Description:
Blueprint: H1 7-16, H2 21-26, H3 36-56, H4 60-74, H5 77-85, H6 106-113
Helix pairs in contact: 1-4, 3-4, 4-5
Bound molecules: zinc ion.
Amino acid sequence: MTExxxxxxxxxxxxxxxxxxxxxxxxxxxPGYVENEExxxxxxxxxxxxxxxxxxxxxxxxxxxxxxxxxxxxDFHPAYLSLKELNxxxxxxxxxxxxxxxxxxxxxxxxxxx
Length: 114
Ligand SMILES: [Zn+2]
């Protein structure tokens, strides 16, 4: 069982699964003094910033894809707001974390990535 190490691997995971902040945070090494939830939220914030980098660097579609993933699979509210501002239609559905409802096992995700 290995922990995720990079932001890119978090994005790969979020492309496939719906994960709340806490469960996303659990995929990373636990340094001990920050909550899983804070780790997960921070990662989503960094991905959110990266999405705008792509949008500004003429890779608009990929940036939008990241924002949609953050909104739909990460339940990350700022991504919804930004998509709305960019006139991208996205229906807000009820969010259920795949791990919290027992649909997936976090340990198997870690192994897939490694
Ligand atoms: Zn969860």
